[in-house]
Amino acid sequence: MRSFWLAALAVALFLSGAEARSIRWAASGDPNTMDPHSQNVGTVTMVLQQIYDPLIARSRSLGLEPALATAWEQLEPMRWRFTLRPGVRFHEGEAFTADDVVFSIARAQAPSSNFGTFVDTITRVEPVDALTVDIITRIIDPILPNKIASIFMMSRAWSERNNAARPQNTRNREETHTVRNVNGTGAFRLTSREPDVRTVLTRNTDWWGWANPNNGNVTEIIFRPIASDATRVAALMSNEIDFVLDPPLQDLQRLRTAPGLRVLEGPEVRTIFIAMDVARDELLYSDVRGRNPLRDLRVRQALYHAIDIAAIQRVTMRGQSVPTGALFPEQVQGYDPAQDQRLPYDPARARALLAEAGYPQGFALTLDCPNNRYINDEQICQAVAAMWARVGVRTALKSQPLAPFFAQIQRADTSAYLLGWGVPTLDALYSFQSLLSTRDVSNNGDGGTWNYGRYSSPAMDALIERMKTQSGPARQAAISEALRLYREDVPQIPLHHQMIPWAMRSNIQIPHMANNQPYFRWAVVQ
Amino acid sequence: MRAFFDSDIWFSFTRSWLTMGSAIVAFICIAGAVAAPWLAPHNPFDLASLQLMDAFKPPSWTMEGDPLYPLGTDDQGRDMLSAIMYGARVSLLVGFSATIFATCLGVSVGLLAGYLGGTVDAVLMRIADIQLTFPSILVALLIDGIVRAAVPREVHDQIALFVVILAIGVSEWPKFARTVRGSTLVERNKEYVLAARVIGLGRFKIMVQHVLPNVLGPVLVIGTLNLALAILAEATLSFLGVGVPPTQPSLGTLIRIGNDFLFSGEWWITIFPGVALIIMVLSVNLLGDWLRDALNPKLR
Amino acid sequence: MFAFIISRILQALPVMLVVSFISFAMFAYVGDPVSIMLGQDFTEAQRTELVASLGLDKPFFVQFLTFLGNAVQGEFGLSYRLSRPVAELIGERAPATLELALCAAFIAMAVGVPMGVYTGLYRNSWLSRFFLTFSLIGVSLPTFLIGILLILTFAVWLGWLPSFGRGDVRPLGFWATGFTTWSGVKALILPAVTLGLFQLTLIMRLVRAEMLEVMRTDYIKFARARGLSNRAINFGHALKNTLVPVITIAGLQLGAIIAFAIVTETVFQWPGMGLLFIQSVGAADIPVMAAYLMLIALVFVVINLIVDLLYYAVDPRLRTRR
User: Fold this and answer.
1) Under 8 Å CB-to-CB from A262, ≥6 apart: which residues?
2) Which of B133, B259, B285 lies closest to C144 in CB terms?
3) Ramachandran class of B117: left when φ > 0, alpha when ψ lies in -120 to 50, beta otherwise
4) What is the pLDDT of residue A2?
5) Helix axes B17-34, B268-295, angle to 10 degrees
6) Domain membership flag for residue C153
7) Which among B129, B148, B263 has CB closest to C15?
8) Is the pLDDT of residue B136 over 70?
9) Could you read off the pLDDT of B88-102 as tens digits, one per residue?
10) Which of residues 425-444 of A touch C (CB under 8 A)?
């Protein structure tokens, strides 16, 4: 109840003008939790990263910059030393110390955390003194700083006091304190929150970063989730909202020309591709019996040649995509422009390859597709289905909401499916390991967790092992070679990197970020 | 046949130009839908014929229009006119089948429950209550889910249309049953029923020949509205991902897809299917209204 | 009367049992909460452990009995999606949906009945024809399209009313109401009209049909012969006798309104139970879905009971048992 009054007060303060510089922000999804180590999804991070700080933060160009750690170095191959920022306090007053780092990393390693992959190489965290901490890894981990940038720092005292030393667990009968409560060190405090309705953040005037003149002037953020595309656009146009994180592509032209609004465009670190079942002996949901056409490289190449990616870019994506032949975009460490090349659009060649592979009359295929996960996902699938049909592959499309879709593909109950893959570590290994390692379903295996086409190549696995431990040019060589192998084997058909337009009122400036995260500490309201 | 043209119904039909007009419009709609494979300029269900580069073409009479596509094209390059004709075919099939199914089931149950009363009434109405307890959309989801689990996926895709019909039909029958039961409760105590009983007519004969015609008024109102409702329910189901496949869109699905383009200036993707649906439903409803009045012996 | 109520309540129990079974059974097909909860990075071990911790590896009927045992105690567990107690979530959202549904029902009755009476009495006037045509167009458009068109007109174009949300709500005890603030009332208008429009046309057509019927009965003719005023005849006799089917339908439609609020709440981002439900479906949040459906079932059972009681009050013939 108190939160209602605070929200009302906040609105009243906003209306009274004065020094309030407020941004009313909308996106389609609401964070499911306020626990910083529970769910690794963009909708949670987009709110929590205003409230919590990591040791190392992302810069405006998605590089690394000091946050709660002012410096870090690799003392030994498997020992990293972090020097912590002095004088930092949590929102509820606790001082930030090395012990909180030990606590937070252990918390992110708990079984009920979704952030395991970011801390999986860490064996021990040793406090050296109150403001110095050593992280010891089990293997040589050259990208540890990239990974640690995803781990928010919590207060041990506060968490233990509130019985939240572990990330929330649905097995509990009772709600964990951190589901609705926060205590970060970040630029904004959580003032009120009604899940799925309204989340209000106000400026933390004590934040260590405000001294930097490059930071912005926002005093308040009111976040309101609006799931319906049309309603979200309407709210922006009727001046009820200042900033929409995910405007629908078809309305961009209208928003660009609307007075008082502007659209920021930029790429996202997310690649859309179609993966194929290259393992089964007999293809599911097809009219081919006793064989799996997709195991034949020529058939996969034919499907690749059949796709007119320029048309998809121009019509389906309205220009908001970057067609690609690679697994990840250029912002990711290890990207190699020489290997970013597509098989050209060539329907005649596709038909020839199909005939050569023994399918002159084509065959029937079912394409599985989510319809509410990626930008225009269902429309992309429809377009691909039509293009495949034109070269003789009679494609049935099965599109579903993400819950049943993911459940189905995770049983590998699919012949071909559309998937998008983001790279939070901004490093190539993340994509290769999850998507192309031989699937390892043993208990501690983390290889190929999303490789539901069950592609398996000893050469690829060896290259991935090299990426894990090597550094410098040797590592880059392994990545480039893996990208070349990816092009040669065609385990997937890459389509494009998503673009992520943001729409906002002309009087506010929020730097566009390729990880689709608005950083309000840099936002300016005029 | 001769008897039909001599009947009062035909007479009342010929006296109302509105009724005749709507009959003609309804006939055109149904004929256009049924004959779509022969009349439509393109086959929008044939994926291989779609050209993505032809998507978002405005109607042919506008500046950028293409005479190949009289009403323009949608986001996949489908000819809108053909898509509407084929879509109306799907919608009408689903709508009619589901409504007939629901009416037969609901009226039978309602008559039995209302006329027989007692345990039969209690049991049947409890079943109807259970059914009503679930919003129609959820019932349809449930049926689709059960079918999905019970039959192999290849078969499921082939019978998707029948599943939708069954799902909508099953979810709508209690309305008919409740209404018919309510009217039957009133009718069964009237003199004409008592008279019929006195002269020794069987219970089922009384129900069908005497009570039924007198409780059909509200059924026709609900039935006509239900046809529209069934068509809309089909669109909502497609919206939730369990309707007909998006590669074979119905009229409701076309409107749902077009919904995304309301702000973007590609108005023809929403407006034409919407207008087609309104015209179709309007004419059917007008016919239903007239039929109700014509069938009602008290209004003659 | 008392025995009647008791028997109806006893009859309602199996209804609730069946509903709980069906609502639980259907979730086996909706989707897999595990994949949503695990996110993008997980190992098979984590997956197995999560499945076990949710009890999803147990046989179906064991899961159901556990669910039922807890449900009887009002304990629906934690939402998979939001990790909060389900009862608390639904309690927070119920006022929004009920306020919306009641307003929609009020609009439907307050406008639908007079329009129905008018079109029944003056069936050939041009205004009647206009009402009928309007009602037909109203039912021919999908609800989501009507909502968007209203937003387009009144929020974007005219700028009179908000396009989404509930406006400012004030707590009234445990009930957060939007009625006490101007912005709350303004925010209610578009969703309530959208939701009520279909019911309005349904009630109007029903009242009209019944009026046409009743106006031709003997007792109306007698009343006329006795020289009663038109007003007394139309409202005292005719309207009163159309009420039986109207009450049935209106009662049943109140439940339908709450169900159809799912679509309206989605379009207007109205923070009610319907929106909660649809978001839970997307995330396969089984506890929330089950609790929602059982609540809806309860509402329906209660409405049915009230409708039956009203039958007794309105139609004396039903009181005499053969």
Assistant:
1) A256, A503, A504, A505, A506
2) B259
3) left
4) 46
5) 130
6) yes
7) B129
8) no
9) 888 888 888 999 999
10) 434, 440-444
Q: Would you give the DSSP letter of residue A480?
A: H
Beta strands at A132-137 and C170-172: parallel, antiparallel or unpaired: unpaired
Q: Residues 6 or more apart from B30 whose CB is under 8 A from it?
A: B92
Are A403 and C170 in contact (CB < 8 Å)?
Answer: no
Q: For position C209, which CATH number holds? A: 1.10.3720.10
Domain assignment present for residue C97? The answer is yes
Angstroms from A189 CA to nearest CA on chain C: 21
| Fold of the domain built from segment(s) B91-249+281-299 | MetI-like fold (1.10.3720)
State the DSSP string of B224-276.
Answer: HHHHHHHHHHHHHHHHTT-SS-TTS--HHHHHHHHHTTTTTT-THHHHHHHHH
For chain B, what are the domain ranges? 91-249+281-299
ipTM of the complex: 0.79
What pLDDT is attached to residue A49?
93
Give the structural domain span for C159.
Answer: 86-321
CB pairs under 8 A between A and C: 170
A353-362, A453-462, B42-51, C252-261: least confident range: C252-261
CA atoms within 13 A of residue A280's CA, in its CB half-sphere: 21
Q: Which chains touch B (3 or more CB pairs under 8 A)?
A: A, C
Mean pLDDT for each consecutive 10-residue tract of chain C (322 residues)?
A: 72 75 64 62 70 74 78 77 85 89 90 87 82 76 81 87 84 77 87 89 82 76 76 72 72 75 86 85 76 80 75 62 42
Q: How many domains does chain C have?
A: 1
Query: Is residue C165 domain-resident?
Result: yes
Does C262 reside within a domain? yes
The 10s digit of each residue's pLDDT in B207-263 is 888 888 888 777 876 787 677 778 777 776 766 656 676 667 888 788 878 878 877
Q: What angle do the packed helices C126-140 and C182-214 form, to 10 degrees?
A: 120
Do A196 and C169 count as a contact with CB atoms less than 8 A apart? no
* Tokens 């005649």 -> residue: A348
pLDDT for residue A132 is more than 70: yes
> Does C321 touch chain B if contact means CB atoms closer than 8 Å?
no
Burial readout B182-191 (b: 16 or more C-beta within 10 A, e: otherwise): bbbbbbbeee
Q: Which of C132, C263, C300 is nearest residue B236 as measured by Cβ atoms?
A: C263
Q: Which chain A residues touch B if contact means CB-CB below 8 Å?
A: 229-230, 233-234, 237, 248, 250-251, 253-254, 285, 308, 311-312, 314-316, 371, 378-379, 382-383, 385-387, 389-390, 394-401, 404
Q: Alpha-carbon distance B271 to B289, whole Å?
A: 26
Positive/negative CA dihedral, C91, A159, A209, A136: negative
Q: Which of residues 215-254 of C touch A (CB under 8 A)?
A: none
* pLDDT value of residue A148: 94
B180-198 per-position pLDDT tens digit: 888 888 888 888 888 888 8
